[in-house]
Design goal:
Blueprint: H1 2-38, H2 42-62, H3 65-84, H4 86-95, H5 97-102, H6 113-126, H7 128-137
Helix pairs in contact: 2-3, 2-6, 3-4, 4-6, 6-7
């Protein structure tokens, strides 16, 4: 009879350790899914980057006059496009500084702020180290 008790004890221990491993695996999978949802997609990034580069080039060529209006329209398109994607909303705070700086008259003479901040937002959405730093720096 003691051998039977030992068998049932070992069986219960194995089940408990298996359940613990299973819960840890599920938690890891959920963390990976959340991280993937925060990533900005390549398609969204490439379309936004092309639009940003076009607007920045027009602003550079026209020295602000027509380029300011083109940039404003592109900024509205990008805000809408990034606002509707989940990953874009996560990176929106990083990206919005580009269009804001582009509207300052003296800084508008320096091109490619919009594209630079968009690229920074994309890279930080893909880098786990930068995600950890931004989570640590953000107020709770």
């Amino acid at each position: 009879m003691p051998a039977d008790n030992q068998y049932y004890y070992d069986l219960a221990t194995d089940r408990a350790s298996y359940q613990k491993l299973r819960e840890e695996d599920l938690a890891r999978q959920q963390a990976e899914e959340e991280q993937n949802q925060e990533r900005m997609g390549w398609g969204t990034f490439l379309v936004a980057l092309v639009l940003s580069l076009i607007a920045d080039a027009v602003e550079l060529i026209t020295i602000g006059t027509l380029g300011w209006f083109v940039g404003f329209v592109v900024d509205l398109i990008l805000m809408t496009m990034l606002g509707f994607s989940r990953a874009g909303r996560k990176q929106w705070k990083k990206w919005i500084w580009g269009p804001i700086i582009e509207k300052v008259p003296i800084l508008a003479a320096i091109p490619f702020f919009r594209a630079t901040f968009l690229t920074w937002a994309f890279i930080s959405s893909r880098s786990p180290i930068l995600q950890q730093l931004s989570k640590a720096a953000s107020p709770k």
